[in-house]
Amino acid sequence: MVTGGQDRNIKLWTFGDEKCFMTLPGHNSSIDCVKFAYSDDFVYSADDTGVIKRWNLNASDSTSLFGHMKSVRTLDFYPYSDTYLVSGSNDTSIRLWDVREKVCIKRYRGHMSHVNSVKFSPDGSWIASAGAEGSVIIWDIRMSKLFMEFTERQTPATCVKYHPTDLLMAAGRSDGTVDLYDLEKRQLITQTPALHSPGAGGGQPVRCITFDES
């Protein structure tokens, strides 16, 4: 397991052992996102200043990706390899990275506020993003442009997830609801009631979504 936090350190843990077995210093601000690559040899992390780091755990060293101007809270990998990485930031932009070349190959702009979640589609053709202003956008990687945009709701979108086989996508909201979109018809088809404990402003935010593989 890998963790990152306000102490600016990446820590690696083995289940069953109470102490972390590796600490990786190198970030200069609070870490907001950590993620294993497809192999256990590499970990990616992103911090409050927008710096993304790729850690080689065998060598305990890192390379940095620079471009975002504010916090990066969400990362996702291309489904067939970790050659390509997508990131979403509080600077309202989404960036597609070629990890081998250590460069940003495309910047997507369309959100008016923080980007809370980014996800590759199962076939790697699209990127979905969830914005704090409420919009959910799908970007076509091959055409390098905005492909679909759902703006029916202004409640902040907190997370997005593609269905593994069907042309469906779910988006969680800050009010505790989940929207389900039909991507073939390009429309919102259903919305759950707020399923989580009500707070001062209604339901509690939905932070993550997973579809049953079947």
UniProtKB/TrEMBL annotation:
UniProt cross-references to Pfam families, sorted A to Z: WD40 (PF00400)
Keywords of this entry: Repeat, WD repeat
Protein's GO biological process: microtubule depolymerization
WD repeat locations: 1-23, 24-65, 65-107, 108-149, 150-191
The keyword Phosphoprotein is annotated on this UniProt entry: no
GO cellular component term, pick one: katanin complex
Highest taxon of source: Eukaryota
Record has Transcription regulation as a keyword: no
Entries under InterPro entries matching the protein: WD40/YVTN_repeat-like_dom_sf, WD40_PAC1, WD40_repeat_CS, WD40_repeat_dom_sf, WD40_rpt
SMART domains the UniProt entry points to: WD40
Protein name: WD_REPEATS_REGION domain-containing protein
Species of the source: Anopheles maculatus
Lineage: Eukaryota, Metazoa, Ecdysozoa, Arthropoda, Hexapoda
